């Protein structure tokens, strides 16, 4: 077999594999089950939060769908340009901004459980990016024993960013499978 023919065969196999990976991953990353807005004890925006997530969260709070807004932030996220004025300016609803330790989805799930136990929360709505919904549901569901709703924000990712999300989220799912506890 010539080198050219072998190169074409490898390229074809890689191309078909990427298409299959893309199709199989689309219900997990691109079109995951996203819950409708629901009355909850807390609306939790996991981090780093973006404007779309904060917009949905504040709209839910204004509708009276929760008694508290919990926002997961890291130290670098405390600036008004990313909409986190919610953390530093008084609101008409209760807002708690906190940095989970570690600053990972699993750390955020543990944090939700800890605060829920202290405050008696039995329902939570978690808001995150659409590519992160399935893994968020998995990790939060391992830790939080109450009713859990997960809402994904619409994505404006280009093809390269989607490819990055597929790789990142797939690796993170593998990590989650290797550490199945809360």
Account of the 3D structure:
This protein is α/β, with parallel strands linked by helices. It has helices spanning 3-30, 51-62, 85-88, 105-119, 133-143, 159-178, and strands at residues 42-45, 68-72, 94-98, 123-129, 147-153. Strands 3-2-1-4-5 form a 5-stranded parallel β-sheet, with helices on both faces. Helix 4 crosses helix 5. The chain is elongated and about 70 Å long.
Number of strands: 5
- Binned strand content: 15-25%
The average pLDDT value, as a whole number, equals 86
Distance between the termini: 52 Å
Total helical segments: 6
The value of Rg in angstroms is: 19 Å
Summarize the entry for a quick read.
With 182 residues, this protein is an alpha/beta fold.
Structure keywords:
182 residues; alpha/beta; 5-stranded parallel beta sheet; 49% helix
List the helices and strands and how they pair.
Layout: H1 3-30, E1 42-45, H2 51-62, E2 68-72, H3 85-88, E3 94-98, H4 105-119, E4 123-129, H5 133-143, E5 147-153, H6 159-178
Parallel strand pairs: 1-2, 1-4, 2-3, 4-5
């Amino acid at each position: 077999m010539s080198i050219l023919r072998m190169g074409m065969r490898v390229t074809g196999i890689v191309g078909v594999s990427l298409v299959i990976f893309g199709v199989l991953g689309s219900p997990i990353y691109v079109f995951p089950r996203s819950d409708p807005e629901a009355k909850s004890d807390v609306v939790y925006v996991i981090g780093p939060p973006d404007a779309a997530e904060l917009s949905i969260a504040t709209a839910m709070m204004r509708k009276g769908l929760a008694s508290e807004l919990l926002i997961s932030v890291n130290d670098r996220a405390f600036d008004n340009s990313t909409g986190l004025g919610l953390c530093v300016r008084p609101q008409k609803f209760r807002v708690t901004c906190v940095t989970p330790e570690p600053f990972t989805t699993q750390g955020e799930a543990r944090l939700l459980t800890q605060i829920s136990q202290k405050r008696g929360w039995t329902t939570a709505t978690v808001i995150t990016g659409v590519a992160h919904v399935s893994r968020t549901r998995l990790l939060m569901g391992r830790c939080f024993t109450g009713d859990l709703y997960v809402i994904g924000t619409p994505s404006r990712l280009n093809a390269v960013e989607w490819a990055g999300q597929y790789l990142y989220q797939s690796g993170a799912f593998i990590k989650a499978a290797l550490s199945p506890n809360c």
